[in-house]
Every structure is written in C-alpha cells, then in structure tokens.
Amino acid sequence: MTAALVYGYLALALGLGIWAGRRGGGGSDDFITGERSFGPILMYFVMGAMVFSAYALLGTPQRVMAKGSDAFYALAYGSVALVPVFFFGARVRRIGARLGLMTQAEFLGERFASRRLTALMGMASLLAFLPYIVIQFKGAGVVMQQALGWHPIAGAALVYAVVTLYVIFGGMRGVGWTNVLQGVVMLVVVWWLGLAIPGQLFGGVGPMFDRVIAEHPEYLTLPGPGAGTSDYQWSAEVLLSILGFSMWPQVFMKCFTARNARLVQHSAVVYPTFLLFLVPLFFLGYAALLLPDAPRDERVLLWLVGHPLLHGGGVMMACFSLAVLAASMSTGDALLHGGSSIFVRDVLVRGFGVPLGERAQTRALRGAVLVLGVLGLVLTSQAGRWSLVDLLLLGYAVPVQFLPVTLLGLYWRRANTIAAEVGLVLGLGCVIALFAASKLAPGLYAVVNPLDLQIGVLGLAVNTAAMIALSLLTPPMAKSHLQRFELP
Q1: Residue that is last in its domain, among 388, 409, 426
Q2: What is the pLDDT of residues 100-128, one digit of tens each?
Q3: Which residues does 186 contact at the CB level (< 8 Å), separation at least 6?
Q4: Are residues 19 and 136 in the same domain?
Q5: How far is CA 216 from the centre of its chain?
Q6: Which residue stretches of 216-312 are H helix?
Q7: Is 0.85 surpassed by the pTM of this model?
Q8: Cis peptide before 223 (omega within 30 of 0)
Q9: Alpha carbons 212 and 196: distance in angstroms, whole number
C-alpha cells in the first residue's frame, strides 16, 4: 500500500506540474514569475508549502526530543516572519512590474546601479541554497528508506528526478500548482497523525502533556534538558530567523509572481495561519519523548509512526510518507526553480553581462535546474555527518545579510552603491570567517563570540554599521535614478 501511494503521488505531482507549465507563454518571464498572474489560492500555498520543508516534519520533533521547548522558536519567528514583506512587498511588486525585474538580486542591482552587487548577491544566494537543498534531499531519502527500503541516495534521486522534470517543463506555474497539492497533503496528514497518535498511546493530547509535566518538566521550559539553550542563544536564533526569512531569494521572488501589489500584502497577512501545521509536530515530538528507545535523530518521527503499539500503522506510515515527500518537494522545487533563475538572470545575464536572447535564457534556466538537481544529490551523498538543524541554521546566515541593502535601498535616499557593495562584502566575509573559525579554531571562536550568538546576527551587525557609515560619508546617488524606485 505504501509503495502504491508513494509512486502514485510522484506520478500525480509530475503530471500536474507539467500540465500547469503548458498554460503559460513559455518564455523566461513565464518560467520565473508565471507572468505575474498568481491569485490568492496559489500565493497562499506557494508561500506556506514552500517554507515548511522536510526540516519542519523531520527536524521539529527531533528538536523537541533534543532541546524541549527550544523547538517553539519556529512559532516565535514564524508569526511575524512576513511582516517586512507586508510593508515592502507591494512596492517591490509595482517597481518590478514596471521595470521588468524578476529576481531579488536583479532588483537591488538595478536600485544601486551595480552589476557587481547583482553578481555577488546571486552567488551568495546559491551558496545559501546548497545546504537547504541538501535538507530536502536528505528528507526524501530518509522517507524512501524507512517506508520502501530504498537506499537514501537512490530514493532521493527518484524523488528529485520527478521534481526536476516538473520544474524544467512547468517553471513557476508547475511549482505553484504542485505546491497546492503538497500543502493540502501536509496539513491534512500531519493534523490527523498529531491527534491520532497521542490519542492511541496516551488517551489524548491532554493526558500526554500531564505525563510530560510529571516525568520531563525540563522539556517544557528553557533552557531545556541538560545545559540546554541559553536565553541569548534562543533569542539570537529567533532574531536571525525573523530577519532572514523574507530575505530568502525564493521568498522575495514571490512578490513578483502575485497578480497585483495588494495580493502580496494579503499573502503576508494570511501566511501565519499555515503555522498551525507545526502544532501537531510538537505533539508528536513529546509523544516520542515518553516512549522508550526512541531515536534522537531525524528518523524519530518515522520510528514513531511505525510504532507497534499503534493500530493501523501501515496506513499511518503510508500517509506520513506522502506528507514528508510533499514537504521536501514543495521546498525543493522552489529552491531548484529559484536557484536556476538566480544563476541565469543574476550571475550570467545581469552580473557578468552574458548576452542571452529570450529562447537562450529559457534553455539556460531549464539546464540550470538539472545541474542544481545533480549537484544537490552529490552534496547529499557527502553530508551524512550533518544534522538537518545545523544545515538550516548555516543556510540562514547568508540571506540575512541582504536585509540592510534591501531596506536601506528601498527607504533611504542616502544609501549608495559603494555602501551597499562594501557592507555586503563585510557581512558575508564575517559569516564565512566565523563559520571557518567554529570548525577549525574553536578556541578562537569562543573568544570572538563568547555568547555563542548566531554568526548571521554578528555578520548583520557589521554589514549594517558599514553600510550606514559609508552612506553618510559618500555622496548619494542621482535624484533622477532614485525617482525610478519611488523613493520618498
């Protein structure tokens, strides 16, 4: 039964993605933005399903098991994560449509009249995408191994062959329509399991938490079990996620896909309702905590769903396998699509000035999807020692560096080219140096970062300070240029 559902789901996603792609014009604008035609339903599921990835399903219960209430950080940042998009997203949509802009780096490179900035942001975005892509491949591989007995790499290869094909032939429309399917599957299955499993094992969610309070009260408060997570670490992690969320290029780019500017704001308002998806995952993490011999890695939820004390375990395993695949694919397709768009538009065309006509751009976009898919599989085969949580937090340290250039570029006339370029270089350089020190010279890292704050927050502080200082010390850009971006 599990095999039939999994293979059938993959076939349905492939067919839906390719069908959706046939509805557009087929050019680069259609491939990247869906010709700016997405309505409220597509926008809701594109934003929600894209964000909640394999990490959310596999990593959230794992984090509950390892750190207790530290896992609630996802609710803390997610509830306000798109507030910045509410304020700047509509403006980005209007300006982007008027100037024919399709990506984040393209938009900001145009604002600061800098090809170097576009190329730098494009390459940094691709760097941030790689660990996030690996998370999706790992998630797909884990479920294919546990549910069907496939080798994780072979399972990931099959799943992402499907994803790669529907992104190549469906573009943004294929991503959007498959995200509707994947979002519905995720929400329905996770809520069913989140209520059914505690009900069968403990008599309900309430009795389950009564046992957690009695047996493991440290898992319900900070710092959590053992040394746990300090207030500084938790706050820095939440801050990093809030600031970096809307700076992820694949999130920012969705401003260009909306039918109109008002719809971008509508999507930011309704997005927090998708956080209800996380609540049953917390329930499942605490359910596993109360059971003996539960694994402490990302396999814990698959172990729980297959527990011998559960009735109808075969049905639960089959449905949960679909939910994990849906989560992995709904984020993975956005990353492959966004990564190809960034590589072609930002790095090749805008950054390095490679002359590509409309047809050549579309072919390059599709070819880049294939290359990223293969690269993701190769990196996944080498990333067995990394946890899903570590990969995600590493990925977040890069896009948060785009925050100063975005907000100051949109709302401050004094922000200029030199300040944007130097600030971004310093912020990214700080992140890379701190990450290298944490791996190669832990003693030095402890001296430089005694509070163990997230490296992205430290890089952001350096980046922001440098950009503000240089903007004040150097001449502003021409008024005629700034007027194109409706700056006050």
Answers
A1: 388
A2: 999 999 999 999 999 999 999 999 999 88
A3: 49, 52, 57, 277, 323, 326, 327, 330
A4: yes
A5: 32
A6: 231-245, 249-252, 261-270, 279-289, 300-305
A7: yes
A8: yes
A9: 18
